[in-house]
Design a protein that fits this description.
By secondary structure, the protein is α/β, with parallel strands linked by helices. It has one domain: FAD/NAD(P)-binding domain. The chain has helices at residues 22-31, 56-61, 123-136, 165-176, 219-227, 278-287, 359-365, 372-381, 416-431, 495-512; strands at residues 2-4, 12-18, 38-41, 71-73, 78-79, 109-111, 114-116, 139-141, 158-159, 182-183, 186-187, 233-237, 240-246, 253-260, 263-274, 312-319, 332-334, 350-353, 382-389, 398-401, 407-410, 437-442, 478-480. The strands form five sheets. Strands 1, 2, 3, 12, 13, 14, 15 and 23 form an eight-stranded mixed beta sheet that branches. Strands 10-17-18-19-16-22 form a six-stranded antiparallel beta sheet. The protein has a four-stranded mixed beta sheet with strand order 5-4-21-20. The chain is globular and about 70 Å long. The mean pLDDT is 96. The chain binds flavin-adenine dinucleotide (FAD) and iron/sulfur cluster. Residues 18-24, 41-44, 84-86, 89-91, 93-98, 208, 219, 240-241, 275-278, 280, 284, 449-450, 482-483, 493-495, 498 line the site of flavin-adenine dinucleotide.
Amino acid sequence: MSFVYQVFMASHYDIIVIGAGAGGGTLAYALAPTGKSILLIERGDYLPREKANWDPDKIFIERRYQAQDEWLDAKMRPFNPETYYLVGGNTKLYGAALQRMRAEDFGEVRHAEGISPAWPFTYEMLEPYYTRAESLFKIHGQRGEDPTEPPMSVEYPYPAMPHEPRIQAIADHLATQGLHPLHLTLAVNRDVNNPRRSACIRCDTCDPYPCLVDAKCDAQTACVDPALTYDNVTLLTQTYVSRLITSATGDRVEKVEIQTPQGTDYLSADTVVTACGAINSAALLLRSANDHHPQGLANSSDQVGRNLMKHNHSALIAIAPTPNPTIFQKTLAIHDYYFNGPDQDYPLGQIQLTGKAKWQRLKKMAPTELPQHWLEYLSQHSVDWWLTTEDLPDPDNRVTLSRQGQIQVNFTPNNLKPHYELAGVLEQHLRQLGFYLFWHKTMELAVSWHQIGTCRMGFDPQNSVLDVNCRTHDIDNLYVVDASFFPSMGAMNPTLTIVANALRVADHLKSML
Ligand SMILES: Cc1cc2nc3c(=O)[nH]c(=O)nc-3n(C[C@H](O)[C@H](O)[C@H](O)COP(=O)(O)OP(=O)(O)OC[C@H]3O[C@@H](n4cnc5c(N)ncnc54)[C@H](O)[C@@H]3O)c2cc1C
Ligand code: SF4
């Protein structure tokens, strides 16, 4: 069932899940068959299906679907974050590159600028959930190509999305240089052996656009929509959770305060799960401070909001004299420098292709103002890469609230040296293939796509917010099941791990119900 708020709704549920994105949507999906009454609350609405979904002017220039939210940076300067308040959350516009973290990422890893801390459990513990997550999101991939691939109990559910000729030629050349180019693992609903009958039409407006034909496996199509086929699951859209209110003793969440188009109201549940995304979940807990929890809910450790990470991200636009007529470009990745560089004994990160950059996107990347016809020429000749290097948890990189209650993101990037080295190494490889012009744009604070880590999981309540089941140490019936829980993030895209973890927490909750 899906509702905009109605006065005849029940006010008590077995479980309330706040946020219908990757974490919350997956949890609702996994718990739906239990028959328990589940309310999924989402501040946004369904993304409208309209031609604008695939219009680069609307996406890159008008920013049509971006949240109309204003956050503050460390110096109190307002900025508009690149985040999406929609059923499906940020996954509605994601690139659908879903990867497992590497087994080594779960242990302590030494980086150029510090230590990436170990998780409280190993890769092997999450492996069965990665397998389920890959099935749920219809992952396409090719096992055995990736030198950093962790042990997997099964093959990928679907064969890899093949490269188009220009990309295949680049992959072949890079292989002659000793690299191991691989097929990027992708969450799309396409039968590569029967394209005519496939939902996905393999178009040139996938990353970072919404999918007009609902063929991208995102949190709405893969999780929320199937969950809503169960009568015991209700979705409330356009409903902002403003506060969680605890019992007289402070050890349980008793009420969930909501703001609907009709005004303020209160709901309750035996179990409350926040899955608002790492920045908004921290903000909700901080906003909910009361006499029992003066620093915010679940914050006796003073860790809520701290250790925010977001990956060091850059676009590297590489231009060659050879035209690039590729339509669906996001098929190739290179993990050879994930654990160390050619001259570095520390990790550099991962390299993947991004969606084919049209001139409107290049306008954003260009180091200087360029006329449209130049941008169009460059777009026809560019191959567009996306580089990701792990950033490290720093307690001073934190989400706080201003006096007026506005979200403030205090963030200083770290571990940038290996990131720039990664860009330099890729450039050297590409120069040997005839690429002669490179634009390297490192993403700024507003690009909060991979926000994680604000309520980290751990054994010790003194320095973590969540226990290993993602239950808050401080409040018995409160869980956080979005990207907030990561103690460290590796350099792989985070969504598959968020989904796998939500499936894991769902198993824990089932055993408690
Ligand atoms: C353009 C783009 C490209 C990306 N590409 C990739 C990719 O290729 N691969 C990958 O792995 N990841 C990618 N990501 C990142 C991925 O989308 C996120 O990591 C993932 O969605 C995070 O899941 P989450 O559950 O933490 O939060 P979200 O999915 O963001 O869900 C949080 C939900 O909570 C809702 N909410 C927030 N506050 C409240 C409140 N107070 N009350 C009610 N509801 C609330 C939000 O509206 C949202 O729907 C991309 C992201 C973007 C933006
Ligand atoms: S490539 Fe496929 S999944 Fe991506 S937007 Fe196009 S139709 Fe949708």
